[in-house]
């Protein structure tokens, strides 16, 4: 068996705000939407935004370490991690200090709903 394509579903408090965040901060574009969901895409990456059903259903919020959500974080690879971090902050996200590792640089960020992601800029990638 081979998995050929995937999609990340996020449950957010405000679909329009989240769609603007991913489009403005990370150059996603809206592929389709209605009053129940919004699908934002970037080449090779799809996020479908759904409205959270109630308080406390999402990840941890401000004041707790980014990445402290007990379930998971996912990563996004970027070519310019400094620019991405700056744009995320400008669009209302939180970004930890950018750190180096053997193969490049990385950081964790949190979107306006408190959903944690890891940004990776790997050296030698096209």
Task: Describe the protein in words.
With 126 residues, this protein is an alpha+beta fold. The protein has one domain: 2,3-Dihydroxybiphenyl 1,2-Dioxygenase, domain 1, CATH 3.10.180. It contains 2 helices and 9 strands; from the N terminus they run βαββββαββββ. The strands form 2 sheets. Strands 5, 6, 7, 8 and 9 form a 5-stranded mixed sheet that branches. Strands 1-4-3-2 form a 4-stranded mixed sheet, with helices on one face. Strand 8 and strand 9 form a beta hairpin. Helix 1 runs antiparallel to helix 2. The protein starts with 7 loop residues before the first strand and ends with a strand. The mean pLDDT is 85.
Short characterization:
With 126 residues, the protein is α+β, with helices and mostly antiparallel strands. It is 17% helix and 37% strand.
